[in-house]
Design a protein that fits this description.
This protein is mostly helical and 63 residues long. The protein has helices spanning 29-33, 38-61, and strands at 3-5, 12-14. The protein has a two-stranded antiparallel ribbon with strand order 1-2. The N and C termini lie far apart (57 Å). It binds zinc ion.
Length: 63
């Protein structure tokens, strides 16, 4: 069994749990690194960036 330390309350719990049983924080250190934006915003920015890159390639090769 694998246990991790909660980034919020720093208590140990089972890594297979989706949330910390003590403080209900999500089981992810990545979310802890982006507390103001969250993972949804981070992914949305990535998707926008990739779409922009695809758009640039399409305009480059359509000439
Ligand atoms: Zn916790």
């Amino acid at each position: 069994m694998n246990s991790i330390v909660c980034f919020n309350c720093e208590k140990e719990f089972d890594a297979e749990r989706a949330r910390c049983p003590y403080c209900d924080a999500p089981n992810s250190t990545e979310i802890g690194r982006y507390p103001t934006l969250g993972k949804g915003w981070f992914m949305a920015i990535w998707v926008l960036f990739i779409l922009l890159m695809i758009g640039m390639f399409v305009t480059m090769f359509s000439n």
